[in-house]
Design brief:
The chain is mostly beta strands. It is built from two helices and 17 strands. The strands form four sheets. Strands 1, 2, 5, 6, 14, 15, 16 and 17 form an eight-stranded antiparallel beta sheet that branches. A four-stranded antiparallel beta sheet has the order 9-8-7-13, with no helix packed on it. The chain is globular. The N and C termini lie far apart (53 Å). The model has no long low-confidence stretch (mean pLDDT 91).
């Protein structure tokens, strides 16, 4: 039996080494994640596989959240992946508020540190209205409902140290900081950079060619 195991190891050790290195790479360096919901529409849609840079903010011990070295701080408008304790699952959202920011929302219009953000209409489909939101110099599209929802308003809050306020770009259909609270920095595992590939769930899972390698 021992000879068989030894022979098996000798014949397959390169394969096992490759698998081990790939797992370490995906844990600590870069990964790809499927997005199953529409909470980040129109930026990210259901069926997107997104590339995640896991070294954007920290060098971590593989398979843990232990930071060996901070590389950079998450910035306003970054799209982050985080292991939410409050939601008990991995989520993807956009950072709206960094530590020290005072943020409020009225009828889906954000105010940050006393400045009301500007919005440019993009179009309307049924009761969904698309806008370009100018997040203090960082422009991106969002969707809102007409009329709004219970998520469309919140009173002014100050973002605590080492925490972040995050929202989905699909503002009336996203369980984000309005539901789960602020996101601790220790929960953030990486920054989403690109769509690798996108599969259309409503069309036999066929690839969406126009979203291949699209930058977020």
């Amino acid at each position: 039996m021992n000879k068989k195991l030894k022979s098996f190891w000798q014949n397959n050790k390169s394969f096992f080494l490759f698998i081990s290195l790939m797992l370490v790479f995906r844990s600590a360096v870069a990964d790809w994640n499927e997005v199953p919901t529409g909470s980040m529409k129109p930026t990210i849609v259901e069926g997107d596989r997104i590339f995640v840079n896991k070294m954007a903010y920290d060098l971590r011990v593989p398979f843990t959240h232990i930071s060996l070295m901070k590389i950079a701080e998450p910035q306003r408008s970054d799209i982050i992946i985080f292991d939410s304790v409050a939601a008990d699952k991995k989520l993807v959202k956009r950072i709206i508020g960094v530590p020290g920011d005072v943020i409020s929302m009225k009828d889906n219009v954000l105010s940050i540190n006393g400045k009301t953000l500007s919005y440019k209409p993009l179009g309307k489909t049924n009761n969904i209205v698309s806008h370009t939101e100018d997040l203090l110099g960082n422009k991106h599209p969002i969707n809102t409902k007409m009329p709004g929802s219970k998520l469309s308003n919140f009173s002014a809050v100050k973002v605590p140290n080492d925490q972040f306020l995050v929202l989905g770009d699909n503002r009336d259909n996203s369980a984000d900081s309005r539901v789960i609270g602020f996101v601790p920095r220790t929960e953030i595992v990486g920054k989403a950079k690109n769509v690798i590939v996108s599969l259309n769930y409503d069309n036999y899972y066929l690839p969406r060619g126009d979203r291949f390698l699209q930058e977020l």
